[in-house]
Amino acid sequence: MLSRITVIVFILLVFAAITFSVVTGQNDENTTNQNSSSQNIKSQPGQCVVASQPEGNQKSQSLNPELPTIGVLVVDDVLLTEVAAPFDVFGKHDANGNQRFNVILIGKEQRPYLSEEGLTLVADFSFSNAPPLTALIVPGAFQMQEILEDQTIVNFVRKSGQDAEYLASNCAGAFLLGKSGLANNRKIVTYVGGGQVLRSTFPKLKVQNDSNTTHVIDENIISSNGNLTSYISALLVLEKMTDKSHRKYVESQLYLNRLKKWNGELE
């Protein structure tokens, strides 16, 4: 009798051990599959995997320390073309396929900004972590008065503009240059119809007639009416920083010659 009980107990123990082994193996397999799936999501090309980041902790753009850095200011209600133009111009590689510049977007905070036209632009750097700039480009914005009253923005433009080799403004960006004092006793132009207000607000500026002046070069300060003429100011700064042949090459990549040929009529 005791022998039979011993055999039965032994069989039950063996069965329990086998069952435990199978269940454990299944759990390990599920865990392995989950880890494998997670690794596949991270490493598999072509998949959109969005990892959430705390606000204000965005990863800054990596820069080539051997290249000049072009900083473009971004604010709320910024005019889109006046940001896009310098990126379009300075972002073009040269005839040999070489990158010539770092081009970055700098905001008061490193966050998304909504342009006047409704496109969201995300700042690469904030004022606090922006690198030294070779050139600073200041676009216009729809709510320019609010920007002029923001002393943090004014101080950044003043400090970065003083340290930069070149300074450019488009459209109402000229008002920010006036507020910073960087353009005192220098020739400058603003948006069409805005010259009189610019002159009365900042009498130390040598404001040019915007009715017949598209752009102005005064040594290292370049200004334009803004909008599509922002391409002109960007190309002028580009030529100063490189040479005429590279500017011509970039113009060809922009198909600027095609635009010059257009007579404004629909065919």
From TrEMBL:
Residues 29-63 are annotated as: Disordered. One of its GO terms (biological process) is regulation of DNA-templated transcription. InterPro entries: Class_I_gatase-like (IPR029062), DJ-1/PfpI (IPR002818), INH-QAR (IPR052158). One of its GO terms (molecular function) is cyclohexyl-isocyanide hydratase activity. Residues 29-44 have a biased composition (Low complexity). Gene3D superfamilies: 3.40.50.880. Its EC number is 4.2.1.103. The keyword Lyase applies. Pfam families: DJ-1_PfpI. Residues 54-63 have a biased composition (Polar residues). Keywords: Lyase. It is an enzyme of class 4 (lyase). Residues 70-231 form the DJ-1/PfpI domain. The keyword NADP does not apply. This is Isonitrile hydratase. The lineage of its organism: Bacteria, Pseudomonadati, Planctomycetota, Planctomycetia, Planctomycetales.
